Model the fold of this input.
Amino acid sequence: MQHNYRVAVIGGDGIGPEVTAAALGIAQAAGVALDTTTFDLGAQRYLRDGTVLDDTTLEELRGFDAILLGAIGPAIGDTRIPGGVLERGLLLRLRFALDLYVNYRPFHAVPGSIAQGSSFAIVRENTEGPYVGEGGVLRRATPQEVATQGSVNTRFGVERCVRYAFARAAELTRPRLTLVHKTNVLTFAGDLWSRVTTEVGQEYPDVEVDYQHVDAACIYLVEDPRRYGIIVTDNLFGDILSDLAGAVTGGIGYAASANLNPARTGPSMFEPVHGAAHDIAGTGRANPLAAISSVALLVEFLGERDAAARIARAVQDFEGDAPTMGTAAITEAVRERL
Ligand code: IPM
Ligand code: MN
Done:
């Protein structure tokens, strides 16, 4: 009997609802029955009634098998929402509250991109680091202002992320893992990350382990991206490196991500890395490939490996010019290749 998965859909703002709708159509075409419930959250909702993410909705979301998120955010230049309100109150709140401790971001370079021929993934720690909001401000807006913003790294948090990264690396044809940090300057956190990587690595003798400082990794991602298998890194470095990785592998329009709770104590959340792109919302020009790839990650996590592989392959086989084709034509082209 085919399982009917319950998926919460937060389309969000701008092109978010369009690309998630396209992606859900592909899941259905691939034979995965997703029973979807739409949640109205994001900039538009906040501007309408001041809601970011209420406790009742958060509790309701816990009951789903997975969450698909489109994009959250106001249009560029719209100053009605102070920075951080939606990021911290919605996106990060979901990551923290649902314990989505791994942000898995795979990249398959498209032909013609700088990184052509490369295929690698970033495993970003998703619940700690400078994202926890540790710190504060004193004497604000005076010449004596003091602002601190700490980075929290726990043995528990680092280890579970590193363990996930090794498990993914071990599945590769050529198993390799690169720890990226800044151990020469961030000596306390860097030491913890290095020791944990070395220790967990003992359990994976077949995985080649390498270390790079984050600044050097920025050079290698551009000049020699084919060297990577799995990159494991902290929350902030992972955020920055994944935009760079998206840019060199064909553009952020292709990049998918999975906010995972590998312990499965609740739903995981899947989202394209790109933003709301309000300038093209409603024009039919949005590229749905990142959302479609995110749905492939979603169905894979739900255990539908065959359908996931078919969707991922169809996206990789897509040869059209995504920036000019439009949402409907791209979706149709992917559907034909399933
Ligand atoms: C991402 C985004 C978020 C992050 C923002 C919107 C809070 O840039 O998912 O990469 O920094 O994690
Ligand atoms: Mn980012």
In short: Residues 239, 243 surround manganese (II) ion (ligand 2) (CB under 6 Å). The chain has a mean pLDDT of 96. The chain has twelve helices and twelve strands. The two ends are 22 Å apart (CA to CA).
